[in-house]
Amino acid sequence: METIWVVLIAVAALIIGVALGFFIARKYMMSYLKKNPPINEQMLRTLMMQMGQKPSKKKINQMMRAMNNQADK
Q1: Half-sphere exposure of 24 (CA within 13 A, CB side)
Q2: In this predicted structure, what is the pLDDT of residue 17?
Q3: pTM to 2 decimals?
Q4: H or E segment and range at residue 19
Q5: What Cα–Cα distance (Å) separates residue 14 from each residue in 6, 17, 69?
Q6: Is 55 within 8 Å of 49 (Cβ atoms)?
Q7: Do 62 and 69 contact (CB within 8 A), yes or no?
Q8: Would you call 70 helix, strand, or coil by DSSP?
Q9: Contacts of 49 (CB under 8 A, 6+ apart)
C-alpha cells in the first residue's frame, strides 16, 4: 500500500514540475522576445532592398507597427 502512495506522489510531482516548467519557460521567452525583437528596422530595410523594393521610412514604420501588433496578440 505504501508503494502505491510513493508512486502516486512521484507521478504527481513530475506532472506539476513539467507544467510549472513549461509556464515559466513560456513567460521567460515572451519577455525575452519583447525586449529583443527578432527583427529590427535595419534588417527590414535590407530585406526590402533584397526583394527589389525601395524602402521608405513610412513603409518601414508601417511594417514594424504591423509586426508589433501581431506579436502583441
Answers
A1: 6
A2: 97
A3: 0.56
A4: helix 2-35
A5: 12, 5, 37
A6: yes
A7: no
A8: helix
A9: 55
In sequence order, which residues have a C-beta less than 8 Å from that of residue 68 and are 6 or more positions away?
37
How far is Cα 26 from Cα 49, in angstroms, rounded to an integer? 34
**Residue ranges in the chain whose pLDDT is less than 70:** 73
Residue 3: what pLDDT?
92
Instruction: Tell me the three cell numbers of residue 32.
Output: 525575452
- Residues near 55 by Cβ (< 8 Å), separated by ≥ 6? 44, 45, 48, 49
Distance CA 31, CA 52 (A): 34
C-alpha cell recorded at residue 28: 521567460
Distance CA 47, CA 40 (A): 11
pLDDT at 40: 84
| pLDDT at 28 (0 to 100) | 96
Q: Does residue 45 contact residue 57 with C-beta atoms inside 8 Å?
A: no
